[in-house]
Give the backbone structure.
Amino acid sequence: MKIRFLFLIAVIGLLASAAPAIGQDNTPISKDLALTPPMGWNSWNKFACNVSEEMIRSMADAMVKSGMKDAGYRYVNIDDCWQVSRDANGNILADPQRFPHGMKAVGDYIHSLGLKFGVYSDAGSKTCAGRPGGLGHEYQDAIQYAAWGVDYLKYDWCNTTTQDAKASYANMRAALDASGRPIVLSICEWGTAKPWLWGKEVGGNLWRTTGDISDRWAGESKWPDGSCCSNGMLAIVDQQVGLESYAGPGHWNDPDMLEVGNGGMTDSEYRAHFSLWAILAAPLIAGNDLRDMRPEIHDILTNNEVIAVDQDPLGREGERVWKDGGLEVWAKQLRDGSRAVILLNREGTEQQISASWENLGYPSNVSASVRDLWLHKDLGKFTGKFSARVASHAVVMVTVRP
Ligand code: GLA
């Protein structure tokens, strides 16, 4: 009897050692996440700390009713301020007034609509809004998130004092994997420690490359405490130049969440914002109130042809291929060999902009079909270059298909 028991123990031990390791880089649990840039919605840009169960539920409903779900948006992400304290055992506690049925109920509701559930925490002792952070509770929090059905964690970088960024995010990825639930890890370190150099290695699925976006066309301005910087949309775009080779399926540069629909830009500027995020293969995380979108805003966020550029399965990030003052050409290679192209006019008056085949990586004698992704219109065949008049603070976005 005793011998049989020992044999059984030995067999179990052998099986366990042959099982895939959980908690190491590239484990089966998280390796196939975010093969195209994540799409969803996040509470911060519009609502900041004003989050509640009721609001999140109604936003999830709106994601379905508005057609955003059909367009590919999946994650409903609660940013900072859902958490208030920890209990005597260190378990993280949601605000009982704002989330009266607890976080699992919110996750269950989101899942019942065929959507996915995201939460926010911070690698330091406190979040940026001063709520309890994850430091020292990584494994405990990961188990809790998994029990709530969390699918996506945005992990911020406030109050981290002397912590090492790479080690901190590797630790959180290991904790998430050990929970046994596949959870997207969104590294929100603002680019300070160049996360594009190590984000993939530590199992990050996306990493912020800059400070926070502001709902305006351009420019940088310092925060009230003198630190740098709140970025206009184009200030963020400029900081993406040179980072394109670090992105690919499962690991994306994140130029921050969308401001489309929040009121600080014109519709034409929002169209440019959305187009540029698509050519950058950026996560498309809407940040507006989905419950009362104007038709123009709805049509920007659900433009299937622009979204297809972002979600192209090759997973190549586009790059700036030409610039002359405020006139620019951006291009992104797509899986079928064609190129998505943006003619961007940052100037104050209408301008003529040309994308030459040479800049797109094609021989100049090739004939290619050009399609306008905002007019939803084939423009015909072109050889050597494509030119268009582009309004002030606007883009023309096309595909060029030889
Ligand atoms: C930081 C992040 C923002 C947001 C806030 C929340 O500033 O970069 O995206 O999550 O914290 O406090």
Notes: The chain has a mean pLDDT of 94. The radius of gyration is 23 Å.
